[in-house]
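Example 9 (inverse folding). The structure is encoded as follows.
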């Protein structure tokens, strides 16, 4: 089964202007997507992990005609930015460079000059409800989200069970998911972390990753993690940055505003691959966070908007799961519930205080939409299908 990926057109358009970077977690489909652009006889694919490909890359024997060249995992080369800058400046008039990697290529710092102004960057996510149902148009920032009446009610349960990564989702087999997850984590720590980071205590980093599974959706205290791991605050801070940079986890920070006594710093952590989260409520919240992060990255990478993804919590412990802001202004807030349709009082409170235009409470239960004051209560599948 082949499912067209949501970034195909955007990448195709960008390749005609500059280099294109595709980053994202291991096994999310970066290589498969990149290979779709190898259509001509002179197009080339090189994987830095392959010895022969490494030699060919460093020899820079590019085709003499206009071609697309895919460089996979080249960021593992210490001088990759400086080297790539020189190759692009020399050959960029005829060679369309497409760079893929399992680290954050746009911010990664491991030597070399800046490539500012020479590339477009895209962050590839796994499947979402909207992508699986064929929706490609992004919501218009600041405007009401348009919801389709018809949506596939089976898409969300499948994502909830098998996760957003292509291989386990397409197989939809519990045994295959367990094996895939184990093999992916083994390669993540033994290859990605080893190749890209200087980590002496790898076993403690693995333990930290295990601990995050039980802390999804909760306030993340680095002090508590430091005490549990019996390491320095500096070490646990560095390790969290590594997990974020290599697309294992991501953090969402509280929204701060003078209208409410908001939390200032303490974030929440979520996982890119959330099927290991056992608590049903936490997994549902992580799934929604993943969809909203995908929306944020799409609006930033494809449309150039400045988008913030936050949660809301004040000193009185009133809390709303998510709030999306565009160009610094609140756009919509979302509260996640496994069941029930009674509107969270905190959603109304923050909506009024922060003047949030659109308020949604979503649930895993199926049913009709209802409007309770300014809050639209609706099935999560219908809400997520509109995000693209």
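The amino acid assigned to each position is listed next.
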């Amino acid at each position: 089964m082949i499912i067209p990926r949501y970034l195909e057109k955007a990448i195709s358009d960008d390749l005609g202007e500059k280099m294109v970077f595709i980053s994202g977690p291991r096994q999310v489909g970066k290589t498969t997507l990149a290979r779709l652009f190898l259509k001509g006889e002179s197009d080339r694919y090189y994987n830095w992990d392959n010895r022969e490909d490494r030699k060919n890359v460093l020899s820079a024997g590019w085709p003499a005609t206009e071609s697309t060249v895919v460089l996979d995992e080249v960021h593992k080369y210490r001088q990759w930015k400086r080297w790539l800058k020189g190759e692009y400046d020399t050959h960029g008039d005829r060679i369309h460079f497409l760079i893929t990697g399992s680290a954050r290529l746009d911010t990664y710092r491991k030597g070399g000059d800046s490539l500012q102004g020479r590339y477009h960057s895209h962050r590839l996510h796994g499947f979402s409800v909207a992508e699986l149902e064929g929706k490609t148009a992004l919501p218009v920032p600041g405007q009401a989200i348009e919801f389709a009446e018809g949506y596939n009610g089976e898409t969300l349960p499948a994502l909830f069970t098998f996760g957003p990564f292509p291989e386990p989702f397409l197989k939809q087999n519990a045994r295959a998911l367990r094996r895939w997850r184990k093999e992916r984590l083994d390669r993540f720590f033994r290859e990605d972390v080893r190749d890209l980071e200087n980590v002496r205590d790898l076993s403690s980093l693995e333990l930290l990753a295990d601990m995050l599974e039980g802390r999804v959706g909760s306030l993340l205290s680095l002090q508590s993690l430091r005490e549990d791991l019996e390491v320095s605050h500096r070490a646990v801070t560095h390790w969290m940055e590594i997990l974020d940079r290599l697309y294992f986890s991501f953090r969402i920070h509280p929204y701060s505003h003078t209208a409410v006594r908001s939390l200032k710093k303490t974030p929440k952590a979520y996982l890119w691959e959330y099927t290991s989260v056992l608590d049903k409520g936490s997994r549902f919240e992580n799934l929604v966070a993943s969809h909203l992060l995908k929306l944020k990255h799409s609006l930033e990478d494809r449309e150039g908007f400045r988008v913030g993804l936050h949660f809301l919590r004040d000193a009185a412990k009133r809390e709303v799961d998510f709030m999306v802001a565009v160009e610094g202004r609140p756009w919509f807030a979302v509260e996640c519930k496994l069941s029930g349709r009674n509107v969270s009082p905190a959603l109304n409170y923050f909506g009024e205080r922060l003047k949030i235009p659109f308020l949604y409470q979503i649930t895993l239960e199926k049913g009709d939409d209802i409007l309770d004051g300014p809050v639209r209560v609706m099935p999560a599948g219908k809400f997520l299908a509109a995000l693209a």
